[in-house]
Amino acid sequence: MEREIAHELLSIGAVFLRPEEPFTWASGIKSPIYCDNRLILSSPSARDKVEAGLAELVKKYHPDCQMLMGTSTAGIAHAALTANILNMPMGYVRSEAKTHGRTNRIEGKMEPGTKVVVIEDLISTGGSAIEVVQALREAGAQVLGIISIFTYGIQKGLDRLAEAGIVNHSLSNLDTLVEVAAQEGYIGPQWKEKIIAFRNSL
Description:
With 202 residues, the protein is α/β, with parallel strands linked by helices. It contains seven helices and ten strands. The mean pLDDT is 93.
């Protein structure tokens, strides 16, 4: 599955590899890779494979899950589509509480004690995912873990998730992706090690 999803992400341009002309992340880091999983929604074929994969991971790792929660905004659509496959309730967590109406941060009816799995599109340093889990825990949810589409495998992110007691399982990852990218001609073989070295330096 890791290789198949990596192939799909590359084929639809959801992952950009530009080692000779790095992207600038929001943090200011110059990166040879940029991942935009929102593009998955525009490709029915890739979308079907990703949502089926997410549903498979939920069933495999969290068979007692009672509700899916998407991260705002990129995880919302994937949580909804995966919940539909699993015939399961879903909701989502805002980046911050509304300033009007009921001032909700968590949208959707979730009873205290509900066993929840968070659907996330991308795991990098883990900060936003941890905030979502903390908000759910404060609302009384029993968060079983995170299921994500892609992870960079940044050690800082892995450490932060572990410290917060959060388990993440991803459909694919950077190590697999650069291997597939080199085999399929998206990057030259010499760039595999350089991209992984960049990740390991963060």
